[in-house]
Design a protein that fits this description.
It is built from 20 helices and nine strands. Strands 1, 2, 3, 4, 5, 6, 7, 8 and 9 form a nine-stranded mixed β-sheet that branches. It is an alpha+beta fold. It is 53% helix and 7% strand. A hairpin with a 4-residue loop joins strand 2 and strand 3. The radius of gyration is 29 Å and the shape is globular. Belongs to the Niban family. InterPro entries: Niban-like, Niban_1/2/3_dom, PH-like_dom_sf, PH_domain. This is Niban apoptosis regulator 2b.
């Protein structure tokens, strides 16, 4: 942390200079055709998912059924039961999934577990080390932190929870906030230079989570091998017991490391922030002189570095650029195409509801589920944040493989590129949804209410065209960045040692007053980047000219295709219920009731023939509103009484839970009483959910 702090203090003024320069000079980039949401409105006051899971407890080696809640922060909380959550009690614990891997089979988990203690392996034919309560496990693996073991009762539950947990990993691994224009680049550059000083140039897949988690991963990267040599030989018992005990020790050390690095990082950050005002004043006063001085040093360094860089480029990189680009383009483009298809299918479903002379009143009814402010469009509004519906899109890009090129350029894993592409896919989906809602709302203003299906269709066509253009722009940028992440570390590893002794003499060319804003190490990397950037730009441009994977040429610009659209960019999220009628939520008070009524992005699961215990299964969790998925029935009011047909269908779907009815009036009264007492949230079983 002392070395990292020194590097951070060096990089902070450089990042501040770059931020101020960008603010003054600006940057020309293609204008987005889709609107961007200014706030996180879709997830406000909502949860991603919640329900009961069997959790394995290390303390007593037993399985316990507990209630798990996934909020919009994607940090999972778990409670003793659903009642504890409703009462607002503190959770039993919380899990941040940054750096975790989500696994659906015990075999894959054991393969990863063997990497934690090399040489410790269970004997062939030995009994499974972990006996799951059911045949549908969900396992969370981390190289340093505690592992978590869950299981559910059905395959459908397993697939849904796997998608939810993977989305939590995707969200928490999404890097540091880009809104921090100075702190984030200073931090990432300091981490990168720290690893490069130890010969580690490749893209680091543990660059995930909060700054504290990233720094703890940085410490553990070197510390864990020392701990393993010291402790592993003293562990006794069966192979799995030794591996599990080792992970418990590693988790304890990991927690201690996080506590220490958090305090030290906050001290360094506070010191840098306190010195920011005078630095920024100097930058704004002497901007032209600083830029001139930097360009002078850069030109001198180019004369020294570029000849050797060009030689390395021609011999070891240029022959592989096209093949690496193709390996990136195919699965990524399939994923973005699937996003387009999923979005299209959702809008088609909305249009079908408005056929046969639908009026604005009917639209208001369709946009509102009785007793909820959960509208028919709500599944579309939540589409980007619905991990189950987006899973087919994410799976396309997970097929990304670099094969032999991965070893040639020392790329330890493609997970960094996969998760980045998936985040971009989610952003594009949300932009498309937001744009559709704004255009639809504008089109409905002053409209008589005729041919609403045609209006929806026209809005859909406009958004799809804009999505195609933005998808091409976003993918081209992603391909360029991914190629740089693959090739730049390789070039730096080859070029840094020969030039290490030459770089100090360039410091003499920098005025002392500007030495904090111009570092020769940073200029060296910029020169190396400059040497390869032309080839990468050309490769991506050629792919666009050939219209491969539906990429647009750079010359195709849609600046004036919809000039009035961006006037809607600052509009708030549309309250469809308030404008077009429908029943709002009942007026209730109390924090516990608010928690029970929180809307949920992923709907609950209903399985035919199952008999869940009240409040103790993720098949039925009372008081959490559900967003109905494709192929599922519409949710009903939380407090409304079931209709006769629904009661009959529920009895058919759960024959073992039906009360011992006799005949006539007794049947009706006993059955109604049973249902009213047993259930609060109900899914429409009549849709025969698979």
């Amino acid at each position: 942390m002392g070395e990292f702090g020194r590097l951070y203090e060096q990089q902070y003024p450089v990042a501040l200079f770059n931020s101020v320069r960008f603010e003054i000079e600006g940057n020309i980039s293609p204008q987005s055709q889709l609107l961007h949401r200014k706030v996180r409105a879709p997830l406000e006051d909502k949860s991603i998912f919640s329900g009961m899971l069997f959790q394995y407890l290390e303390e007593n080696k037993k399985w316990r059924n507990r209630f798990f809640f996934v909020p919009d922060s994607y940090v999972i909380s778990y409670y003793e039961n659903k009642l504890a959550y409703d009462r607002g009690l503190h959770p039993k614990g919380a899990i941040s999934l940054a750096g975790y891997r989500v696994l659906g089979s015990l075999e894959k988990y054991l393969e990863l577990l063997e990497t934690t203690l090399p040489g410790v392996k269970a004997k062939a034919g030995s009994a499974p080390p972990l006996k799951c309560a059911t045949q549908f496990p969900i396992l969370l693996w981390h190289p340093y932190a505690r592992h978590h073991y869950f299981c559910v009762t059905t395959e459908k539950e397993q697939q849904k929870w796997l998608a939810v947990f993977q989305d939590c990993v995707r969200h928490t691994n999404n890097g540091l906030s880009e809104d921090c224009k100075v702190q984030t680049p200073a931090f990432t550059d300091a981490v990168r230079l720290y690893r490069q000083a130890r010969g580690q140039y490749s893209t680091w897949e543990m660059m995930c989570g909060t700054p504290t988690q990233i720094l703890a991963n940085l410490v553990m990267e070197n510390l864990v091998s020392e701990l393993r040599d010291l402790i592993a030989v003293r562990l006794k018992g069966k192979a799995f017991d030794r591996q599990r005990n080792w992970m418990l020790i590693s988790d304890a050390v990991y927690s201690l490391v996080q506590e220490q690095v958090k305090a030290q990082y906050e001290a360094v950050l506070q010191k840098c922030e306190a010195g920011r005002p005078p630095l920024e004043a100097t930058i704004r006063t002497d901007m032209d002189q600083i830029v001139t001085s930097k360009e002078h040093v850069t030109s001198k360094m180019c004369a020294l570095v570029l000849p050797k860089a060009d030689k390395l480029l021609k011999a070891s990189i240029q022959p592989y650029i096209s093949s690496v680009l193709e390996a990136l383009m195919e699965p990524t483009s399939r994923g973005f195409a699937e996003v387009r298809d999923v979005f299209f299918r959702e809008l088609v479903d909305v249009s079908k509801n408005m056929l046969n002379g639908g009026s604005k009143e009917k639209l208001g009814e369709l946009l509102t589920t009785p007793g909820h402010q959960t509208c028919c469009l709500r599944p579309v509004s939540m589409l980007a944040f619905h991990p189950v519906k987006m899973q087919s899109c994410y799976e396309k890009v997970e097929q990304l493989h670099l094969e032999g090129l991965q070893q040639r350029f020392d790329v330890p894993s493609t997970s960094v590129f996969i998760q980045r592409a998936q985040i971009l896919m989610r952003e594009q989906m949300d932009n498309a949804v937001y744009t559709f809602e704004q255009i639809l709302h504008q089109s409905l203003e002053g409209h008589s209410g005729d041919d609403l299906a045609k209006i929806i269709q026209r809005c859909q066509d406009r958004v799809i065209k804009k999505y195609d253009y933005d998808s091409s722009t976003v993918r081209k940028k992603f391909f360029r960045e991914a190629l740089l992440q693959i090739f730049i570390p390789y070039m730096l590893k080859q070029l840094s040692p020969p030039f290490a002794a030459e770089l100090p003499r360039f410091r003499e060319l920098i005025f002392e007053d500007f030495s904090r804003f111009i570092l020769v190490e940073n200029i060296f990397e910029e020169v190396v980047l400059q040497s390869i950037m032309k080839d990468i730009m050309m490769a991506v441009k050629e792919a666009a000219v050939q219209r491969r994977h539906n990429l647009y040429r750079d010359s195709i610009v849609l600046n004036n295709s919809d000039p009035n659209l961006h006037l809607l960019d600052d509009n708030p999220t549309i309250d469809w219920t308030g404008e077009y009628g429908g029943q709002g939520d009942h007026t209730d008070s109390g924090e516990s009731h608010k928690r029970r009524r929180m809307k949920q992005v992923v709907s609950m699961i209903q399985v035919d023939g199952s008999h869940p215990l009240p409040y103790e299964s993720c098949l039925e969790v009372p008081g959490v509103g559900g967003i109905v998925e494709e192929g599922e029935g519409k949710g009903t009011d939380t407090h409304s009484a079931p209709s006769a047909e629904e009661s009959h269908q529920e009895t058919k779907s759960h024959p073992e839970s039906a009360p011992p009815l006799t005949n006539g009036t007794g049947q009706k009264e006993d059955g109604q009483k049973q249902l009213n007492c047993r259930i609060v949230i109900r899914i429409n079983i009549a849709s025969n959910i698979n």
